[in-house]
Amino acid sequence: MLTFPRYYSDIHPTLPFLPHNKNRLNTRLNSCPPILRDAFLEALYTTIRSLSSNTPQYGESQSSRKAGSLIAAAQFDNPSTRSMPNNLIYLQAMILMAIEADHHGPSAMRSHSGPSQSVWLGSAIGLAYSMKLHVPKQKEIVSDGDADSDEKLARRCWLVLVTMDKFHASSTSSPGLIPDASVVILADDQQFGESTFHLASKTTLRTTDI
After folding, report:
1. Among candidates 138, 41, 73, 60, which has minimal Cα distance to 101?
2. What HEC string does the chain produce?
3. Are the CB atoms for 67 and 39 separated by under 8 Å?
4. In DSSP terms, which residues pair with 208 in a beta bridge?
5. Would you give per-residue pLDDT tens digits along the chain (210 residues)?
6. Could you tell me which of 176, 169, 138 has the C-alpha nearest to residue 155?
């Protein structure tokens, strides 16, 4: 099964919103509720399928619908009572679906039956706000030596959402879902990789070294 390698080779170098290695990801998945784990794995599977130009549209739509249904079923847990690691997995599943929806492009919108990228981005950003990911927590980011701690994963997810939202707004000539006032790029965000820092900082006007 090439799902994990394709993510780490094709997506992670630019949008590193999952743990840096498969073992850490598996550890997190094994600790979450089965329905959430299934939702995430289906989202990952359908997103990787969408990267292949020879994927049959019918099979892709079926996989997208299954992933959407599982994510919808998992959402009935209250985000405020869901643990931080589980909230992150739920958020990451929605980011995956936003990436998957983007691969269809405007010309495929009529044949693709799943929610649009705008819907998935809006849902992911809404959850990110409820998790307070837009509030910079520099002390937590710099003090933990674990590159895949909850705090650092949360920060990477937020930077990825900022980047995706700005590119989506540009490609659709529509307002972004994240206002500039909610985006502050920290100097310490460079630790997440040059591509991530460069893309996030280029999409916003506010950068600080506080």
Report:
1. 60
2. CCHHHHHHHHHCCCCCCCCCCHHHHHHHHHCCCHHHHHHHHHHHHHHHHHCCCCCCHHHHHHHHHHHHHHHHHHCCCCCCCCCHHHHHHHHHHHHHHHHHHHCCCHHHCCCCCCCCHHHHHHHHHHHHHHCCCCCCCHHHHHHCCCCCCHHHHHHHHHHHHHHHHHHHHHHHCCCCCCCHHHCCEEHHHHHHCHHHHHHHHHCCCCEECC
3. yes
4. 186
5. 568 899 999 999 989 999 999 999 999 999 999 999 999 999 999 999 888 755 555 455 677 888 888 888 887 766 666 799 999 999 999 999 999 998 765 544 444 557 889 999 999 999 999 999 998 776 666 656 788 999 999 999 999 999 999 889 988 888 889 988 888 877 677 666 666 666 666 655 444 544
6. 138
Which of 31, 34, 38, 43 has the alpha carbon at shortest distance from 7? 43
φ, ψ of residue 39 in degrees (nearest 5) = -60, -45
Burial (0-12, 13-18, 19+ Cβ within 10 Å), 119: middle
Domain boundaries, the chain: 3-208
